[in-house]
Design a protein that fits this description.
Number of domains: 4
Oligomer: single chain
Helix content: 25-40%
Bound molecules: adenosine monophosphate, magnesium ion
Structural class: alpha+beta
Number of helices: 16
Strand order of the largest sheet: 2-8-9-7-6
Distance between the termini: 31 Å
Number of strands: 11
Strand content: 5-15%
Radius of gyration: 24 Å
Shape: globular
Largest sheet: 5 strands, antiparallel
């Protein structure tokens, strides 16, 4: 396996890289050189051929010993100097000080087909930023990260990618629900891939340290390599940067709301400055449409990171990024002006996105109200988000909207509690469907074309919470076939794929309140 390493970013490894005791407080630095830990007996569980191709790695090479060695952390890439980055962050609304890549190590950067990619091992041992933790990751959370990163990509949601999922052969102690029941679990390493893993927290840490010199260096570097479209200079350049990060963040969150993804831990250290979904921890997928839902049990009290609040949190996080950039601008007014434009960017883009989900494309004055009412209705009767929007494409606006509820048949599979309540549901939805029917007549589009366009934004298959858990349960017993099946299915989330029809179904009742399905902690 021969990778085109990008030597702009590789450096001579210092004579004394941190090898044994990786842990220390780090000052006046953006990163530290670290050697990944030796896995005892690495074994490849799964790899993404698509992500491999980005790096110039072929299918055959994936199966090679060299691949296993490099991406399990056992053999360093020749000429590369692995490093971990420092960052800080606000966790659950409170400044947490220095954090950093506590269990992520950048093992090298590849330049392939005009694009630079950083390869980052997650779970390959301690770094100077591990604080009191072990730098390791377990199989269950690694399966979740690997499957979901790639699923998100195929859903066209901006995201970091996942190359490989490798068992280390080592055991890791975890108290999965933080309830005093620690157990040994299988250790694993995922290799994540992205143009950059820079987070809001990477900038915040320098401002917190009053280290304006390094803050400026990092922002200049970011703009030079990742925001080449910015042509301005001086303070204007930094304001343009802030504006672009905001636009990218808005775009990412709107995609989340479109597919029903709940990140679960939108701390500022988990916000990519490139607007990529990053750090797949206790994330979840909406099944019943509920803006108040979060899968993260660690956030159960305040539900800060609930589905419907994600746009607000993105705004709050951007405010913190603005604070971090302040020393380069030294004037709050233009920063506030940009921040205050958040709503005027988000609101119309969200409306357009929601309209496209119900097949509306021209402008009509009442559209906002129609979408608001729809969201209320979806919450009123527990309604499966994915099934509802996908099936709505079959709604024929020429049908009679009467109390028998025949008009609602197309979406009936989406209702969780329809048994014995069909008439209540049918009458409750009558007003909304009447308005929708009227509204559809204003569109210049036939049924077939409407369905086609709706199916491009409403996925048929998402990584439902219980599906990942089933794959984990099997993998724990050494069977990885379900990982591969789900992976294959999620590569084409908008296609019908009749062979996978059984996954186009409401969440089974057993999964409603099950650990790993609807309840996840940050333990990983
Ligand atoms: P997260 O909630 O996963 O985004 O992690 C928050 C911070 O804790 C980050 O700085 C991580 O690098 C660090 N962290 C999480 N788990 C571990 C671990 N097992 N070992 C070392 N650092 C960790
Ligand atoms: Mg994180």
């Amino acid at each position: 396996m021969k990778l085109e390493l990008d030597d702009t970013f590789t450096a001579e490894l210092p004579a004394d890289p941190v090898t044994t005791n990786n842990r220390c407080q780090v000052v006046q630095a953006a990163y530290s050189y670290v050697i990944p830990r030796q896995p005892t007996s690495p074994k490849l569980v799964h790899a993404s051929e698509e992500t491999a191709a980005l790096l110039g790695i072929t299918k055959e090479e994936i199966m090679s010993q060299a691949f296993l060695e490099v991406f399990s952390g056992s053999t360093p890439l020749e000429g590369a100097a692995p490093y971990a980055m420092v960052y800080g962050g606000h966790q659950f609304g409170t400044w947490a000080g220095q954090l950093g890549d506590g269990r992520a190590i950048n093992i090298g950067e590849v330049f392939h087909h005009g694009q630079r990619w950083v390869m980052q091992l997650k779970g390959a041992g301690e770094t100077p930023y591990s604080r009191s933790a072990d730098g390791l990751a377990v199989l269950r959370s690694s399966i979740r990260e690997h499957l979901c990163s790639e699923a998100m990509h195929h859903l066209r949601v901006p995201t970091t990618r996942s190359l490989s999922l490798i068992l280390t052969g080592d055991e890791v102690m975890r108290d999965m629900m933080y309830d005093g029941n620690p157990e040994l679990e299988k250790g694993a390493v995922v290799c994540r891939v992205a143009p950059s893993f820079l987070r809001f927290g990477n900038y915040q840490i320098f401002t917190a340290r009053k280290d304006v010199e390094n803050l400026k260096k990092l922002v200049d570097y970011t703009i030079q390599y990742f925001f080449p479209e910015i042509k301005t200079d001086g303070k204007e350049k930094y304001l343009d940067f802030y504006r672009r990060v905001m636009e990218k963040t808005v775009n990412m969150v709107i995609h989340w709301q479109r597919v029903g993804f709940v990140h679960g831990v939108m701390n500022t250290d988990n916000m990519s400055v490139l607007g990529l979904t990053i750090d797949y921890g206790p994330y979840g997928w909406l099944e019943g449409y509920d803006p108040g839902w979060t899968p993260n049990t660690t956030d159960r009290q305040t539900r800060r990171y609930r589905f419907g609040y994600q746009p607000n949190i993105a705004f709050w996080n951007l405010m913190q990024l603005g604070n971090a950039l302040y020393p380069l601008i030294e004037d709050t007014e233009p920063l506030e002006e940009i921040l205050n434009s958040y709503g005027s960017i988000y609101t119309p883009a969200y409306l357009e996105m929601m309209k496209s989900k119900i097949g509306l494309f021209v402008h009509e004055d009442g559209d906002r109200a129609l979408i608001d009412d729809l969201e209320q209705m979806l919450t009123f009767s527990e309604t499966d988000m994915t099934i509802f929007f996908r099936q709505l494409a079959d709604f024929d606006p020429t049908i009679d909207i009467d109390l028998q509820g025949k008009y609602l048949e197309v979406v009936k599979d989406a209702f969780y509690e329809a048994n014995g309540k069909w008439e209540i549901i049918a009458s409750a939805w009558q007003d909304w469907f009447t308005a929708y029917q009227q509204r559809l007549f204003k569109e210049n589009i036939d049924l077939k074309e409407r369905k086609k366009r709706m199916n491009e934004v409403n996925p048929k298959y998402v990584l439902r919470n219980y599906m990942a858990q089933l794959a984990i349960d099997e993998a724990d017993k050494g069977d990885y076939t379900l990982i591969d099946k789900l992976f294959t299915m999620l590569k084409q989330p908008y296609n019908e794929q009749p062979e996978f029809q059984k996954w186009f179904a409401r969440r089974p009742e057993w999964a409603r309140h099950k650990v790993g399905c609807s309840m996840l902690s940050c333990s990983s």
